[in-house]
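Section 3.1: Structural characterization of target chains.
Under the original work plan, the team committed to producing a structural model for every single-chain target entering the pipeline before any wet-lab resources were allocated. The record below documents one such target. The sequence was received from the expression subgroup and is listed exactly as submitted; it comprises 273 residues.
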Amino acid sequence: MAGAAAGRLVVAGGFSPLPLRPTVTAGVFGGLVYAILCYAGFFFAPAAHASVLMPGSLPLWTALLAAVLLRDRITPARALGLACIVGGDVLVGGEGLLSAFRGGEVWKGDLIFMSAAFCWSVYSVLARKFGLDAVRATIAITVFACFTYVPLFALLTGTGVLPTRLGTAPWGEIAFQALFQGVGSVVISGITFVQMVRAFGPVKSTMITALVPGLSALGAVALLGEPLGWNLLAGLALVTAGILFGVRAVRQQTPDSIAVRACPAGAGGQKNS
């Protein structure tokens, strides 16, 4: 009891509701490194590449990590689902991704985006392994980022090492991004995602994110008047089929399903595994 209390107090002056180890682990992979890689990728590759590569590679990374860390078996149905997701994402964003082979430094951004997806996969699997509570995990990541990312960003931008246009951006835009990214992307998305991981497991939860490229393309069709091509419809159909194959109920007992019953929904703190 005393050791656990001491672990909580060590982290950010007692601001984190989790012990030291899960706070640092979740904060590094789900907060600090993930955020750095995400934003760094945009210096080399366009946003369209990020919308395909990050959610598209996320289920693959997660399935491999879950197989190693959680002993989660990749069933034939799940493997077929992953193959459909990859094929669908390639159809949706393949033309844009081919620009990486036409010269320039776009390929660097693509690799960075895939690395960011790997970090988020690590966080997703560890959230299940540690049995993290959704709200506490989100608070821990936010606290860790506040005490690590913010000072580092201020130091690098203040010394001119890291270029930034934050000083020239309108205050209205800064306030909107702070509200949208801080409350929407971090708080709301963070809590709901970890809750999904606790309920359905990391692999099934990340498979659903494979809809992002297709939905983004549909949004561009509806809002920006972009053409509705056959590749978009075929890609959406493949991704949807892949999700259905991947998240369908499995009758046999697996370590992933056993972990759900071993960690009740109301439990906070850490699960022994």
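Confidence is low (pLDDT under 50) at residues 1-12, 249-273.
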